[in-house]
Every structure is written in C-alpha cells, then in structure tokens.
Amino acid sequence: MVNLIIDGVKVQAEEDSTILEVARFYGIDIPALCYHEDLSPYGACRLCTVEVEEKGRKRLVASCLYPVKEGLRVRTHTARIVNGRKMILELLLARCSNSKILQDMASKMGLQRLRFKPENDDCILCGLCVRMCAEQMRSGALGFIGRGDTREVVTPFREKSEVCRGCGACMYICPAMELQCRGIVSSGDLCNSCLVISPQCLEKYDQVMCYVESCGGCTQKDRIGKGGK
Amino acid sequence: MKRIKNRDDLEKLRRTIVEGRDPKRTCIAICAGTGCQAYECEKVVEAFTSEIEKQKMKGKTDIRRTGCRGFCQRGPITVVYPEGIFYQRVKSEDAKEIVSETIMNKRIVDRLLYVDPSTGQKFVFEKDVPFYNKQMRILLGHNAYVDATKIEDYIAIDGYSALEKALFEMKPEQVIDVIKQSGLRGRGGAGFPTGDKWEMCRKANGDVKYVICNADEGDPGAYMNRSLLEGNPHSIIEGMIIGAYAIGSNEGYVYVRYEYPLAVKNLTTALGQAREHGFLGKDILGSGFSFDIEIRRGGGAFVCGESTALMASIEGKVGEPRSKYVHTAEKGLWNRPSNLNNVETWANVPLIILKGANWFSNIGTEKSKGTKIFSLVGKINNTGLVEVPMGITLREIIYDIGGGIPDGKKFKAVQTGGPSGGCIPEKLLNLPVDFERLTEVGSMMGSGGMIVMDENTCMVDVAKYFLKFLLEESCGKCTPCREGIKRMLEISDNISSGRGESEDLKLLEELATVVKDFSLCGLGQTASNPVLSTVQYFRDEYEAHLDGKCPAGVCKALIEYFIHEDKCNGCGLCRKNCPENAIIGEPKKPHAIVSEKCIKCGICREICKFEAVAIT
Amino acid sequence: MNETRDKNSETLGIVELGKVDAIINNYGSDKSSLIAILQDAQAEYGYLPQEVMRRVATNLGIPLIQVFGVATFFRAFRLTPKGRFLVRVCLGTACHVRGAPSVLEETERRLKVKAGGTTDDGLFTLETVNCLGCCALGPVAVVGDEYVGQMKATKVAPLIKKYAKKSKG
After folding, report:
1. Do the bridges between strand B449-454 and strand B371-378 make them parallel or antiparallel, or are there none, so unpaired?
2. Are residues B191 and B319 in the same domain?
C-alpha cells in the first residue's frame, strides 16, 4: 500500500492505482468525461487535472493517468484548477452546445456564460466509444481519423464496418448520446436550469425538457442570477 | 572494402587516407545542400567537372560536393582550397572563368567575390567574410571538408576516433560522466541535460534499450538539422554509437521527417558505408560491442517532433503524444528504455569525447555550454545558418552576422523557438542568447529557428499565423489544445478583421493560460507563447486593431489600397492586371482604385513601376 | 495477381494488388513499418486507393480503422489521385513574413482551386508546405521539381502558363 495526502486528507492506495481511482474511492469528487473505470484511461478531456507536489515541485497532471507515489501531496480543487476546468467545460459546451451532460456539469461548476460562438457538434471526442469497441468488445470497428480540428470518430471509410457486430456498446457508453437539451443557447448566459429544482421550462414549453432527479425541495433561482430562458 | 577488425587497422586506414591527400592540392568545394540545390548547384558541379576535364586538369584538381556552408543568401557557394577563396552566387556559366583564372592562373574573379553592402569592401578569403567572423563553426565547419557520400573524407578529419577512444579507453559510465561534465544540453528545444538523460536510461530496468535521433525538425524556417544530416551524416552516426555504448543499447533509430529526401538519401549511403567498414553491426572494431541503426521516415506531422508522438509513429501508429509521467528514458519505444536526442545534440558528442568536457564547457555561458546553430531567416540581409557560442547577443547575430534588415527598414521583432516560442522586441536586443534568458523573456531556444521581422510585419498577424499552424498540426486528442487553440485563432482573426471587442484581449489571455497549464503535451503547453509574447510586447498594436487600424499595413480588413495621383502617369498596367477590375482610369490620366471591389491582392502595387500604389 | 476494381479510381482503371503484397514483403510484414509501407504504396499508385489500404490491413493483421487513421493523420498521404503537376507553395514562417499569403491567394485564384484541391482538367494539384528549408529564396513555390524563389503574386500566372504549355507539348 502507498500513503499519500489528497486535499489534506491522508489516504492509502494500492500500488498500481491512479490518483483519480483513489480519490473517487474516498468520495472526493474529481470531474472527468473521457474516463470510465472499466476502460483504459485516456487523458484527453483534462477535466480530471489536479496539482501534485513532489520534492518541492508542483505541477498539474491528469489524475486519471498519474500513478500514486509514496508521500505524494495532491490538491484537487485549487483556484487555478477550478478556473481551468470551467474554461475547458466552456470550450466543450461551445462545441456541443446541446449536450445535457455538459450543461449539467456547467451548472454544478457555476459556469454561467458562454463566450464563444456555439456549434452543434454531437461528439466531444472523448474516445470512450473507440476504447469500448476495442477493449471490451474486441472489435475495433471505430476509430479516430484526421487531426487537430478535423479529428473525428468514424468507421473505416465512413461505411458500415465489416467487424461491427451491432452490439450498441458504443452508443451505451457515449456521454453525448443522452437526451439533448432543447433550450435556447447562444453566446451569452447559459440557462443553468438543469439543476434548478423547479424546472423553468414548464412555463415556456408546457413540458419538462430534461430529466431532473431531486424531489424539488428548494429552488435555485439565486444561482442563476439573470434567470433562465 | 574490408571490414576494420580492430583499432590498429583503423589507425592504419586513417594514416593511409591522410597521407594520400596532399593538403596543397587544389580542391573546388561546391555546396550541394538543399538550399543550393534550389539554386541549381548540380549544374554548377557538372560545369566544373566538364571544364576540368576539358582543361585536362583532372589529375591535379579535386571537385568536392559539400554540405551546407551556411551563407544561403549568397548561394551557390563555391570555395577554392587550399587558399579558401570564397565565391558566391556562382552560376554554371562561371565555371569556365573560375577554372581558367583562379585554378590555372591563380587570379581572382572579382565579380564573384562577396561585397559588404554597407562598406563596399570586397573579401577574397572565406575566413575574412564578415558573415563568418563572429561565428564559431565547430559543427557546421566540417561541412567544408566532407562529401557526405565519402566516408574517407570523414575518417580523414579524425572521424570515428572519438568512437575508438570511447570503446577502448573508457567505460560506459565514464562516457556518461564526460557528457555530464561538459554541460551539454538537448538542442531540440527543451535543453534537458544530456548526460542526465543518458544516465537515467542506463539505470533503467530492461535488457533492450533504444537510442533514437530526432530528425523531425518541424519548426518552419528551421533547417539546421537537415544541413547536418545532409552534409555530415557520419558525425551523427558516430555520436549515436558512442551514446549507445554508454547507455547499453544495441538498436538505434533515426526518425527523419518526410520532407527531407536528400537527408534520407545521404544518411542511407553513410549507414551503408559505416557498416561496410565495421563501425556498425556486430563486434564493432573488435570491441565486443554491437549496434546498428535503422532509418524511419515521418509522414508529415509537426507533432511527431514530440518524443512520445515520435515513438508512437515508429511503432506504426498515429503521432498522438502521451503523458510523460514516466520518463521515456525508462519507458519509451515499445515501453522500453529509450534515449531520444536531437540531431545537433548527437553531432556534439564525438567532439566532446575527443576534445574533452573542459574544451566544451569553456564555450558558452554558465548554464548553457557550447555553440548553437540558428537558422537566421525572414527580413534579414544574410539569410542562412549561423553557429555561435551561447551567450552572444541577439544584436550581434542580427546585425554583425546577419547584416541587418534589408531595404533600410526598421527592426521590429525576432521570433525564436518556432511555433512554441515567442517574439522578442527591439528593446531586448542586447539579450545574451541562452536557454534560461530566452525563456525568461517569454520565448525559448527551441530547435534554433530565428525569424526576423520588420516594421511591415503585423504582430497580430504573426500570432494568427502560428495559431493556424498549431491548430492544423495539433493531434486533436486533448480538449484545451484542440478547442483552445481553435478559439484563440477565432479571437485573433476577429481582432485582425476589425471585429475585435475590448473584452477580447482579456479572454485571449485567460484562454492562453488554460491552454498552457492543462494541455497534455509540449505542443499545447507552448501554443500560447506566440499569443502571450505578442500581447505582452505589442499590446498597443493589438489595441490599434481594436480601434480599426493595422499599423503595419497587413490585415486586409483594416487597410486600403490607393493610388498617389501625383505619381501615377496613367500607363494602365495596374488596371490591366487587376483580377477584380477594380481600377478605373483613362490612358495617360491618374488612375484610381474602387475600394468596394478591391480584394487587396497586392498585384497593382507589385507591378507599378512608379511606386504609385500605397497602403493606408 | 490479384486485381479488383476500386470505386474511387474508376478513371484510373484496375488496381493491381500484387504490388502491394510485394511492398509489404519488403518490410517483412512488420506492423511498425505501416507508415513506410503506405508511403511506398503511394509512390507506386500516386495516391492511396481504398483497396490498397484494405490489403495492407489484411496482410499486416491490423484493424482497417487503424490504417485509415494513419492515412488521414499524416499529411504525406493522399486519398484522391493527384494532378499531373504538383504545385507547392511554402507557408513557412520566413516565407510568410516575406509575403507568401499573397502568392498562395493568387495561385488559388489562377488555378481556381483551394489548397489541397486538383484542377478540373487534372493538370495541377495545389498544396501548401510548412517549410522547404530554402528560406533564403523565400517566398518559394515548387512545381514538380522546379524551385522558384522570390515569388510574387505577379510571377504566378507566367509560371502556371509555362506548365500548362508543357502539358500540351
């Protein structure tokens, strides 16, 4: 077992584990999008970034990949990290502005403004589907092509793959395939309605536009500030 | 050619070669580097060859095709040895005259000499030419004496004697110690102490280890590595064999970028000759040490200059970097200990082993030892490759060696470190060049590209240029780099198109900080440097753009082309050549540009013989 | 000899796959030589037809998507046939500050294609390069093997005309 300190708390971890695994085990909430405990870690979304201190040197690392070490000091929510995560989320939201999961995360983080021109992509390039198909289903029918801003996930030559067994695991694991938010989004204020217990969209659409879990014990109008749309 | 079986045989061979060469024999050395190839130097070689034959001088005169001589602005370069008479801009038609005048009659062909543009002084000998004066060409200098396709040339200048010394007089740990003491730091960009890396790799667990040469050289405007590989490939081979011996590796790779066919060709020839002679393969020189090198070509991806992406590419995968939480020196290529060094780093190794750590550490500054090769390009008179001791100032490089800015224009900035570096303004020209100082001012050493900019270069446009480059070259894996650079480019584009708003600068800086701190690899982590350094030193220029002006006259949305009525004589040349028919005017009367139709292509300005077209 | 019709290369005819097998054998069917194999295949066919990529995947025993991924990641690879003359405009930093963008724009205007495209008559393919290492000649354009230095927008038309004429000769 390895001893380390996360956010001031002394914890113990198995030798081959990563900081993210340990943190989640202890209930410390480090957000992540491209991580799934049954697939190999990828380190692409960078939301799980934490600060580690080793031999007096501090640096930012991806906790889903960084191995635990004896005596490591980890901080998961410094100001620099929190602000960075918000920016990363803002960038992802600008790309996939209709993704409910991103909107949820934005609400939780207190991200209220989108300062970039939104697009309507439906893929955050997390690679979970690719790894699911390759590692769990052992098919390899999906993969990344291109690079930079032309990078995308496709089947070979964009046709139905000969090795695809139609298992649907890729759809199952995809964060962006969840119910989409149909609220209006343009650069400006986010509606942040998803975590508001009294859904604002009932008035406008006569229908709940997303799924809400809590019982509605309290409203969170104060968090929104200018109010949702 | 018999394989050299032991040290004595090598010594014998070297003596035979050296004794068979008369130092007084005339040699016409013609530069055959890629730059001069573009100047058709091969025709010059042919012309000399046939002229020497014609004059029946073949037995008394050698012709040598050499590697890059560095003074690329004046190519093709031809130097006549042993005197060292330096001829520049030599064409194939000049061969006849040079042979009859200089070779046969010891007379100088005046018109082909280098003339200093500011003083009008002519220089006859290579050693006197001002371009070379402040340089210290411990690496590039050898290009003059070596034909890359002839291993004998290399052996004649003490080539492979460092290898002898290492294999037979030193233990591997001693070799590492010497490299450590010399203070050699990686020449690829980050400047990591080479000796430390070698030691880490040697100590790593595993029987199979690799040494790799990074010849990807992706920084646009940088071609130092190419010139070393094309001109003196054996220097790198020897360096790698020594390194492999020190680390305990038997397999090496040279990863050459796809855009360097001549480097691949010359390296392949050199490897073949090295194997024939027994410098590579089993039981090298009878030492018991075995090692060989394979060439791997890149596929056209800047990101493959990053060590983990490079290794992925050798493994046959796409060049996606991975986090280096475990050093590649411990787990690299195929998860085995791998030591990756840049071409220039490897080229320094034989010299250090032969001449000693002190010789090397006496050159340079306290923390940056030795020399560095820079490609001095852009708005500069003497474009070319310069090799200078660390610690020389930017001013000396740009003015004393580079000859200053052409056309009497004013210096504005010098960009170092490629797309990972930053722009350095005039007020910092006295900065001594070394790893730490360049990083302190917001740039970095990088691989050695040094791009000079003048008053007609727009710094917002430069930042935009680098962002566009990086976005295309980003592997696209991690969010901050892929999305962050894209949005920084959007903002810069808005600013240069006159659509910028006052909050844009703040957003740009905020974004730049997150991209720097959260990106997975070096490409993303340094992608913000061009933006941050130009905003830091040229903020007023950004603000001018927010006010709708581009002071340098570059950003199309913010400039207008117009014709000076008093200079225009109505010749109509511009009107006839305007692709948009945006110029109106009657013959012999001053013309005018219709701004709504003008696409600012610049053709009218180029074509006007009276300098009547201006930009506002 | 294996032959198969490639739907991307109707105009080029039948793709002979025997050549691909030979190239793969050359590299000892080594998976890590994928990039070199694809480069040699491209040198042979002028571009990478789908059938060639399939053959490589099968013979090397790697997923087709990995071959497709490599072929689309690296700039060296072309998935469509190229024109008779390859026109490359250097957009390296040194050429950029010396005015390369206006050279590129004029070339795009004259050829009526954007960078990356091929003209309708199949004569010219236009590409941009991020540094040829001839910075002293900048801005530089290369047509086939001919390097043209000190390029200006006004030099583009005569250069293209020269090669258009060559093709008729």
Report:
1. parallel
2. yes
Report yes or no: A155 at the C interface, CB cutoff 8 Å. yes
CATH number of C85-168: 3.40.30.10
For residue C134, which of B297, A200, B72 has the smallest C-alpha distance?
A: B72
A149 touches chain B (CB under 8 A): yes
Give C3-73's CATH code, choosing from 1.10.287, 1.10.260, 1.10.10, 3.40.50: 1.10.10
Q: C57: part of which helix (H) or strand (E)? A: helix C50-60
Q: How many domains is chain B built from? A: 5
Distance CA C127, CA C108 (A): 10
Chain A's closest residue to C70, CA to CA, is A145
Query: B342 forms bridges with which residues in the sheet?
Result: B214
- Picking from C33, C93, C94, the nearest residue to B316 by CB comes out as C33
Whether pLDDT at A160 is above 90:
no
Q: What does pLDDT average to over chain B? A: 94
**Which residues span the domain enclosing B473?**
459-546
Which of B37, B314, B603 best probes binding to C when mutated, by most C CB atoms within 10 angstroms? B603
pLDDT at A224 (0 to 100): 39
Burial of residue B455 (number of CB atoms within 10 Å: 0-12, 13-18, 19+): middle
Q: What are phi and psi of B559, to 5 degrees?
A: -125, 165
ipTM: 0.90
Over the Cα atoms of chain C, what is R_g?
A: 18
Q: Hey, which chains touch B, using 3+ CB pairs under 8 Å?
A: A, C
CB contact A167 to B (< 8 Å): no
Kindly state the average pLDDT of the residues B588-595.
92
Examine the pLDDT at A216 and tell me if it is beyond 60: no
* pLDDT level of residue C132 (50, 70, 90 thresholds): confident
pLDDT value of position B291: 98
Tokens linked to B410: 């004013």
Which of C93, C109, C130 minimises the CB distance to B579? C109
The type of residue at B132 is Y
CB contact under 8 A, A61 and B478: no
Of B334, B361, B388, the domain-final residue: B361
Answer yes or no: are the C-beta atoms of C70 and C34 closer than 8 Å.
Answer: yes
Q: How far is B407 from chain C (nearest CA, A)?
A: 13
Contact B487 A91 (CB under 8 A): yes
User: Cα separation of B136 and B390, whole Å?
Assistant: 10
Q: Report chain C's mean pLDDT, rounded to a whole number.
A: 88
Domain termination site, one of B297, B329, B361: B361
Chain segment B404-421, per-residue pLDDT in tens: 999 999 999 999 999 999
C149 vs B contacts (CB less than 8 Å): 38-39
Chains that touch A (3 or more CB pairs under 8 A): B, C
To the nearest 10°, the Cα dihedral for B481, B486, B491, B495? Answer: 110
Q: Report cis status (omega within 30 of 0) of the bond before C158.
A: no
A161 at interface of C, judged by CB pairs closer than 8 A: yes
User: What residues in B contact A84, CB-CB < 8 Å?
Assistant: 480, 514, 517-518
Q: Tell me the pTM.
A: 0.91
Assigned token pair, A53: 């201190």
β strands within B477-576, DSSP E: 561-563
Measure A150 CA to nearest chain C CA, in Å.
Answer: 10
Q: Is A62 in CB contact (< 8 Å) with chain B? A: yes
Does the structure show a pLDDT above 90 at A223?
Answer: no
User: Could you give all domains of chain A from N- to C-terminal order, each with its CATH number?
Assistant: 2-77 (3.10.20.740), 97-120+179-224 (no CATH), 128-177 (3.30.70.20)
